[in-house]
Specification:
Helix content is about 40%, strand content about 15%. The strands form three sheets. A seven-stranded mixed β-sheet has the order 6-5-4-1-2-3-12, sandwiched between helices. It is elongated and about 85 Å long. The mean pLDDT is about 95.
């Protein structure tokens, strides 16, 4: 046995980032993930440099521990194939709008009628109870819809997106979490269920936990936005020879830092002695930090802050992270041989289990690489498989 979800069959009807990330998490946990792809493949296959068509880095990093079934769901006969898969699955994960699933004959009522134990999880843009229910959604759009660029602008000067697909990935983690909890519920009750994980609502919950702030109260006690996080000086600090990430946070940190800065009397000033006082004066304090850190080199500050037990980290780069000594010691980045793509760098599974340690069992698949294999496992005869291939209802990898 490898991974806590070993033996669980997942039908992955997702594309782009959010859904594939969720499905990869389930696959890493041991689930048998069947990735349903259209004849042209997941759109992410074409992003970035590649040695072979459709095998770009974005796809490779979101689709390990899956097997690919290429099928043309525009054809009615393909939907019969899909229903046979769903009748035997434990989980259906999809990222289309629910209206599109209904047009495929794969709405929850349709699937539950043939498989009442299925965990049917949709991760899509907006909750179905509001006026935005049928709108499309992508990471950038959701960041805009929840006001994240406005929050960024309060620190950086103009609206900007976060430089990672934060909405896609955060919602993907939540969707995988919901599936795991629904499987636990089914274990106790025998009942499957439908789950909706809307990006708009989840990311509002994710971000406004920090920034609802004074609007938590009615009438508001202050405007929205946590001042410390929005201060323009909250950024890596420039030293004499580089940059340094530092979080001087609690009373002990500040008292020690004031001593390092040659201003020990500030620790006794009521404006700076408590977190409440510092929050009211955070802009001054962050400017003071910036001025102080500019007086020494990064190495000097790393030593001094380490001795004072104040959290700090030199500013890294994506290239430097790959060679980071901690990453090397934990073997997080591994060079492995992909069956078709040659030597690639793969990230490890970022957690460890004492009893059911997950493992990487499959490399990211070529389009339709496992079509025949999966059809056979789900009970299709060789004659039927040949007919499906001949009619191009399903496709096999070249």
């Amino acid at each position: 046995m490898s991974g806590p979800l070993t033996g669980i069959r997942v039908i992955d009807m997702t594309m782009n980032v959010m859904g594939p990330f969720a499905a990869q998490i389930l696959g890493d946990m041991g689930a048998d993930v069947c990735k349903i792809e259209p004849p042209e493949g997941d759109t992410l296959r074409g992003i970035g440099p590649a040695r072979n068509k459709g095998m770009g880095p974005y796809f490779l990093n979101l689709n390990r521990n899956k097997r690919s079934l290429a099928i043309d769901l525009k054809k009615p006969a393909a939907r019969d194939v899909l229903r046979r898969f769903l009748a035997q699955a434990d989980v259906l994960l999809y990222s289309f709008r629910p209206q599109a699933m209904a047009r495929l004959g794969a709405a929850y009522a349709d699937v539950a009628a043939i498989n009442p134990r299925i965990v049917y999880c949709g991760a899509f843009g907006f909750g179905q109870g509001g006026p935005y229910a049928d709108r499309p959604a992508y990471d950038d759009l959701i960041q805009a819809a929840i006001g994240m660029p406005v929050l960024q602008a309060r620190g950086l000067g103009e609206p900007t997106y976060v430089a990672t697909a934060i909405a896609d990935r955060a919602v993907g983690v939540m969707a995988a979490t919901c599936v795991g909890m629904a499987l636990y519920y089914r274990e106790r009750t025998g009942k499957g269920q439908s789950i909706e994980v809307p990006m708009f609502e989840f990311m509002t919950h994710f971000v406004m936990g920090d920034h609802l702030y004074g609007m938590t109260f009615e009438p508001p006690l202050a405007k929205a936005g946590y001042p410390r996080m929005l201060d323009p000086h909250r950024q890596p600090y420039k030293t004499k020879d580089g940059y340094l990430g530092v979080l001087v946070y609690n009373d002990k940190h500040w008292s020690r830092f004031f001593a390092l800065a040659g201003r020990p009397e500030m620790a006794r000033d009521p404006r700076y002695a408590t977190i409440a006082g510092r929050t009211q004066n955070i802009s001054f304090l962050y400017a003071f930090l910036a001025e102080t850190f500019a007086t020494k080199t990064t190495a000097e500050w790393v030593r001094l802050l380490g001795e004072a037990d104040i959290p700090a980290a030199p500013l890294n780069t994506p290239e430097g992270l790959v060679d980071d000594p901690h990453m090397k010691a934990t073997e997080f980045f591994k060079l492995v041989d992909h069956p078709s793509e040659g030597k690639i760098r793969m990230m490890g599974i970022p957690h460890h289990w004492s009893e059911s340690e997950p493992e990487i069992r499959y490399h990211a698949p070529r389009l339709g690489e496992h079509t025949v294999e999966l059809l056979a496992e789900y009970g299709f005869s060789s004659e039927t498989i040949d007919a499906l291939l001949a009619e191009r209802i399903v496709l096999n990898a070249a």
